[in-house]
Design brief:
Layout lengths: L4 H6 L7 E4 L3 E5 L7 E7 L14 H17 L7 E3 L15 E5 L8
Bound molecules: adenosine monophosphate and zinc ion.
Adenosine monophosphate binds next to loops.
Length: about 110
């Protein structure tokens, strides 16, 4: 049994508004959006953060980054978007399953 919130979302044990999935990654809406469009993109495989990532994860992380603009386009972010990845306490990381925030569609609020 995993204690990781985002592994639970991946496994369907915690509900989420999933907007994209493929064999390696998953995207769902942030529960506390800081912009009109705010979603998170995670690898299916648990990696805590960039400190935890290994050379073998290079392809996976590259794949996610190349998938983000496709999801952003589906979400209507035609004029652009912000991509954020927090690492550790100093980066205000709250959930220790690596995730890219993608924000856009209007003003950002309370995003630190
Ligand atoms: P971070 O500070 O980078 O770890 O960001 C964690 C993000 O996960 C925050 O923006 C939260 O609003 C979001 N979050 C927490 N719980 C959930 C959940 N159950 N479903 C979707 N997003 C969540
Ligand atoms: Zn996890």
């Amino acid at each position: 049994m995993t204690e990781c919130l985002f592994c639970k979302i991946r496994d369907g044990e915690v509900p989420a508004d999933i907007i994209f999935e493929d064999d390696e990654c998953l995207a769902f809406c942030d529960i506390n959006p800081k912009a009109p469009v705010h979603f998170l993109v995670i690898p299916r495989r648990h990696i805590a953060n960039l400190w935890d990532a290994r050379n073998a994860d290079e392809g996976l992380l590259g794949r996610i980054q190349l998938t983000i603009p496709k999801i952003a386009k589906e979400q209507g972010l035609d004029s652009g978007f912000r991509t954020v990845l927090n690492t550790g306490p100093g980066g205000h990381q709250e959930v220790y399953h690596i995730h890219y925030h993608v924000l856009g569609g209007g003003p950002f609020t309370g995003f630190n």
